[in-house]
Specification:
By secondary structure, the chain is α+β, with helices and mostly antiparallel strands. Helix content is 48%, strand content 19%. Strand 8 and strand 9 form a beta hairpin.
């Protein structure tokens, strides 16, 4: 489940998102548009833990969040209600019939790690707009061949993104100490080496391009 709430940070870093990989799943704090010291919390935990967190008093919830995230943003305090939503992986066909195509969450739902569901949905919409340019210039022409081509072109990006977002949290949640250390070293390398970090960031934003 994903536990969602808005929290206030005692030492915010404006414009920067944070994500920590824990034994139960990723914990992300994302900048909130309402104020520079507010963050949207996305905390992935087993279902029973999610219900327990929802039932905690404010101070106990804040203490649990602080223990899981650390002190990098100073003191963390919840400022609104806690919600919990089940997570599931779904990837149906993007081409649903004659003249009907699905994009974004209508086409697939995936783990919220690294915000890749949003990025994938934006790429769906952007590439659909590109695919429809010939039809917009000549609306009397058949549109179905363009939609079928769009669906074929989206397969590689969808498959790779779904695979990455399903595998990454499992790797970091492993009980294998060697694998855990390897994952930590990999993150450290990405943090220290722009030559590794920039291609990964470009792929996460732009996806698999053919």
């Amino acid at each position: 489940h994903a536990v969602l709430a808005t929290v206030r940070a005692g030492a915010p870093v404006p414009g920067r998102a944070f994500e920590r990989f824990t034994r139960t799943g990723p914990l992300a704090l994302l900048p909130h548009p309402a104020a520079t010291d507010l963050y949207s919390l996305v905390w992935c935990v087993p279902p029973e833990r999610a219900q327990a967190l929802k039932a905690l008093p404010d101070a106990a919830f804040d203490a649990a969040l602080q223990a899981a995230f650390g002190r990098r943003l100073g003191r963390l305090q919840r400022v609104d209600e806690v919600h919990a939503f089940p997570l599931s992986l779904h990837a149906g066909p993007s081409l649903l019939g004659q003249g009907l195509v699905a994009v974004g969450n209508a086409a697939q739902t995936l783990h919220p790690v690294a915000g890749q569901g949003l990025n994938l949905g934006l790429r769906d919409a952007a590439q659909l707009a590109q695919a429809l340019r010939p039809w917009l210039a000549a609306p009397d022409a058949p549109v179905q061949p363009l939609l079928e081509r769009h669906a074929r072109q989206r397969r590689a990006d969808r498959a790779l993104t779904l695979s990455v977002t399903d595998t990454l949290p499992r790797l970091f949640a492993t009980a294998n100490p060697l694998l855990r250390h390897a994952c930590g070293l990999g993150l450290a390398a990405l943090d220290l080496l722009p030559a590794l970090r920039k291609p990964l960031a470009r792929h996460l934003l732009q996806g698999q391009r053919l």
